[in-house]
Structure formats: structure tokens, C-alpha cells
Amino acid sequence: MTRRASEVAAARAVAGAALLVGAVTTLAGAASGRLALVVPACLFLGVGLVAALVARELSARSRPPEQVAPPPALQALARRLTRTRMRLLGGEGWALEGRLDGERVTVEAWEAKGLTLRLAAHVPVALTGKVVNGFMRTPALRDGAPPPAPLREEPAAGALVGLLAAGGEVDVGLTGLEVTVPDRPGSPPDLERLARALITVAAAVRTDTPPPPDPRPRLLAARTRPSTSDAPALSVRRSETVCPYCRDALDEAQDEVVACAACGTLHHAACFEEHRRCTVRGCERRRAERVSGS
């Protein structure tokens, strides 16, 4: 018998004994007319009820958690992938990893968020951004500009339109492409078709080599240790006064400017607060030090 089973059995035994004594005391008091037995009878009955509730709670915790089955769309894609690995995410979602036609594909399925399909690929910096359905269902970047030329030519253009029809937007990032689609009951999405569409789009924009770690103008920083204190001090020199997040000029005389506490990159304070971390790829420190402004 396990420890939890022993605890459940003990709680049930205490509950049974207390309820039995309480019932017998109540009957004895009623038969003899002695009111003095009412108080101990109530105490025994109360202890019995509490012990019964404890036993019920322990019994419920001892049951194994119910396993939620993966969504049908995820199971269908798993049968088409090679080197497949599926795992449960915190009891509320599923993750699937595998390869389709040699490409690494990952899917996360959440009941409230839908299905997020990702494809690993190196993408040039100039092509990064979210492509959305714009006016007249024409693909456009988030700011309304047309997508890059490689995404306006077939077969990538047709594949992109299909992805946008299913998910509304496609995130083209430095390390891959991503689309999130709803998982409606009774009409699961065709994840294999969407994955092949991502592969087609990736073929138009990917590069053979990884992008540079930080192609944007940035602040060059160095760490020095002063002799009067054990705490490191940040010394910086500026290469260009441009905020890497919004790409606007940094005017330390008028703007509120902060520097990343790790690499020293300058940002507008509002930009750093909005992004909640450093924008330098590979850094992403969440703390900044004020450089200028009130």
C-alpha cells in the first residue's frame, strides 16, 4: 500500500469511528434525556465529517490525472513526419516535433490559442516581419508595405496566400517562419498542407548561412571594474545615435534614453519599456540603466 493510500484509509477509519461514536452518543442522550451528552455528540459528529472530507480530498489527489488526447490535426501530422517526438505541455497543451521532407517542423497546440506551426530556416534581415492580409486580401507587411519581391512570385506567393487564408498572418523571423491557425471542433486544419506551404515560402526567402548576430547599429560597450567598488560599472561609446527598436534618432538632450545593463545598447526609454527587453539578438536583457532624460 502506498503512503497516499494509507493516509486515505486512516482518514476514512477516523471518520467512521467518530461518526459512529457521535451517533451512539446522540441516541443515548435522547433515550436518557441527558442534555449533557449533546455537546460531545456534536463534537464527535463534527470530527467525523471533517475526517470524511479529508479522506475524500486525499482520494481525489491519489487518482492519476486524466490524459488529454492530442488534437486530431496533430495526430494526423505526426503520422506524416519522420523522427517524430510528441510531449505534453503542462497538462494544457501538446508539442510535436519532427521532419517533413527533411525540414524541421514544430507544432504547439493549445486549447485556447489554437495551433502554432513553425518551420526552422535562416532568413535575411531585410525580409523579417509579419505578413498579413491587407486591403482586398492582398498580402502586405504589418506597416502596409508590400512583401519583399521573393514572396510576390510563384510558387511562394500562392503558398503565402493559402497560409494567410488559414491564419491571418505569417511571422517571418530571423530563424524561421510561423503561422497560428484556429482548431475548430469538427473541422481540424490540414497541418501537413500548411507545413508544405511554409516550406515553399521558406525556399524563397531562406539563406544558406545564419544571419549576423546583430546587423543593426548598436552601442559598443565594455565592462570595467573600478578599484573603489566591487560592483561593475558600464562604460560605453556610441557608434550611431539610432534606437534599434523604432529606428528613430536618439537625442539625449531631449529624449529619455536608457542603456541595456548587459551590452549597453541605447534605446528610447519608451521603446525599451514597450519591448520589455533589449532588442539585440542574443542579449535580450530585461534591465536597463538610465543615460539621459528626467
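^ that was protein a. below is b, sequence first then the C-alpha cells
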Amino acid sequence: MKRYIIFAVVVVAILSLTLCVFAQPATDQPADGRGMGRGQGTGEMGVRGEGGARGERGGDRGAMGARGERGGGRGSGRGAVVPVPETGFVQLFDGETLDGWEGTDRWKVEKGAIVAQTTAENPLRQNTFLIWRGGKPADFELKLAYRITGGNSGIQYRSAELENSDFAMSGYQSDIDANLRYAGMIYEERGRGFLAPRGQVNYRGPSVSGTLASLATSNELREVIKTDDWNEIHIIARGNTLIQIYNGRMMSMLIDDDTAGRAMEGLIGLQVHTGEPMKIEFRNIRLKQF
């Protein structure tokens, strides 16, 4: 356990200094949301309640990465952050069709975005997913933009499709919700439930689990996520370590040594959730595999 604590502290320290280089400006695209209780199978963690309203991103956080030119002296302040060039990524969505994806007829393409919607007249009976059929990535980075109106949603990764279901999935999920109660957390659909809430670096082992470090308070990170607007998500999966970044801020991290419960590869999917009427939109979906 001690070596995982040391590892997590080192990772958090490095990311806190360089994290903003992952930030990629959001481009104009659409998104969706999630509603009632989270899981619908084993490991359900209970019915979700309504979260508080989310605030707009508070103020300019300032540069966290690259320093200014050396010759300027300490009083000159920090220079502008230069994002890491985005190389090696492949687009998973062509902006016009659902080629390469499979799901129910609830999913469609509108104005360059993948869209799903529920209404009071046309509710959803179970969580369902649009599944990418291009493979089962193991170690990768996944980037995309989303916008949600009402309810909640999520992005599945290293996941499995359930047999004899209407495109239901189980596995890791990068959580999204309109009320910002769960957005940013690492959740496991139809599995172990809440693995790393927003703001936490958590360890999950076969017999011992707990929090290794804190990134910030949940409320502080909540201010980073925009309501009724586009947000950028960056998911990193390398070995037993999962990292979720929203709008350039690290939201949660999991070191998963639960060999019986974890997955080291799997499907990618986009969720539309049961519950209150909602609309979710996704765009600019790109993947880099290692």
C-alpha cells in the first residue's frame, strides 16, 4: 500500500504543475445528460438526488505550467502556457454519420454532434449506450466535448456490453450530469459504483481501498464545469491508473489493483440515462492508443 501512496503523491504533484498543458479549447458542438438512480444492476450505489446549480467557471485561474523567460527575474511573473501539440489522435466520429457506432434509434447526428434525447412523452426504460465498434482500447487517451441539458450521462471506457440487452454496458464511466453533483467522478456502471468522487485520488485493492490524496474540494472543481455549454473531457487510461480531466482541470484519479473487479481493456460508449427529460450532445471525439 505504501508504494501506491508514494506513487499517487508523485503523480499528483507532477500533474498539478503541468496539467494545463492537457487543456484543449472547446469547439462548438452539442451534448446530453443523466437522470435518476445510477446503476441498474449489481453494485448500484443508490438513487441519485438533485445536485445544486453549477456556477460558471470562476475567473482566470492563471498559468499553471510553463514559466516565463528566465531572464525576466522573479518579478516578471509566469509566461503563457503552451499546450502540448495533439499528435497521434484519430477521430472516432466523422461529424455527419454514426458510421463505426451502434445503438438504438434514439441516437442521431445533428449539426455536427451525436445527440440523444428523452422526453416526458418518450422516456427511457433502462440506461442505453451508443457503442464504438472500432475495438477495445487498453492504454489510451480519449478526448471529446459534451453539452448536457437536464439529467445525467457518461462516457464508458474499458467497458463490456451486456448480453441480451438493449445496448446496455458495464464498466468504468466518466460521469456527466446537469446539476454537477457527479460530473467528473470515476464511476463503474453496473459494478462497484463510486470509485473516485470528484476531487479525490483513490486506491482500490483486493482487500484495502481508500483515498490517497485530495486534488481540490468537490465544490472548487465544480466551478470549472460549465452548465448549458460545451465542456472538454480528457480521459487517460494507462495500466492500472485512470485519470479524468475536465476543461483542463484534473477531476479524479483511480489506481485500481482490484484484479477481480477491474478491466484492463474494453469498449467505449456514450450514455443516455433514465429519469427526467434530458438531452446529451457529443462532438470532436478522438482517440490515441498506446
